[in-house]
Each structure stands twice: as structure tokens, then as C-alpha cells.
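re the bet — no i am not wrong, look at it urself. input seq straight from the record:
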Amino acid sequence: MNNERGFTLAEMLVVCAIVGLVMAGMLGLVMAGQQAYWFGTTQVDAQQTVRVALERMVKEIREAGYHPRVPDTSPATCGAPPCYSFDAIGTGASSSSLTLQYDWSGDGISAASGTVTDPILNAARGERVIYSYSSGALTRREIGIDGTPVPIATGITGLAFSYFAEDGTATTTPADIRTVAVTVTAQTANQGAYVTMSDRVRLRNR
């Protein structure tokens, strides 16, 4: 005679409970994996944002004070341009803003406004560039070219400039600045990873 006894309700409940526990554990693992993947993705995104911002600033800071011809090192005795009569770093230098000055035209003067002709590129250039940080964006404005600041990186949560003289001491006097340290922090997604990168740049033309 065949045994036709089925599962009892208690046995079914026990099996369902065990399956539920296993599925809950697997769901936790899947969610943890997704969270780790998302966090890693935001970290890579933030790293790329900071890297692009730093590379752009470092290149221009290094070239600050550029003069296409060898200037007179003593503007007081220079009767006519070109004279080295301007500071590579402008008076707007602060912990969150930086003004870079150039002499693309080679006339010995860094124009505060308007454009000049770069004799090498044969193109209009602004001789002052201002980097600043506001409302989560790093902006760049080339005076005479840009009517308003242009965002070059978003998701920025912190930007700090530090200035150092030839002997390595901190200074805020534009004529004494030889090295600029830049620190940028970014978080490109809500509750995503924070990434901070720093670099020190020696002014090539000072």
C-alpha cells in the first residue's frame, strides 16, 4: 500500500522560513555589491573631475608671467617695453580665488581688460585669467574673452590655494610668490565618494 501522506502545514512553514532567510541573505549581498559598485563609480568620477581641474590649473599656473621676449629684469631702468613690470600672480590671489597674469603681446604690460594678439598663435588672448570656486563649481574667466566665469568642473566641494616664496615660507605678496599649492575636493554624486587631490606648482617665469 502506497504512503500518500503529504507535507504538514508546520513543515511548509519551516521550509518557507528557511527559504526566506536564504533569500534575505542573498538580497543583502546583492545590495551590498551594488552599493560598493556605485560608490566605486562615484569615486572614479570624482577622481576624473579633480584630475581634469588640477591639470588645467597647473598648466596655466606654471605659465603665469609668460613673456614672449626676454624682458628687462629691472623695470625701473627700462626706458621702453618690453619690461618685466607685472606680477605673475594678481592681487586677487586668495585661498579660494587666483588671478594669473600674462603678457601675450610682449609689450611689458599685463592688460587688465580687453584682448591682445598672441604673436605665436596669432589669436586674440586675454592677459588675465581668474580661477574661483562658487556653489560647487570651479570656474575660469579669461578677461576679454569670457563675459562671465565659465564652469570647468562641477561637483567641487572644496578648493584651496596656498602661496609660497622662494625660501618656502608662506606669502600673500604677489611679487614674492614663486610656488602655488592647489588642493581640490570633489563629490560628484549625493552621498558618493569624496576625492581630494593636491599639487604644488613652481612658476616657470618667475
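see?? The radius of gyration is 29 Å. told u. also The chain has a mean pLDDT of 84. so pay up
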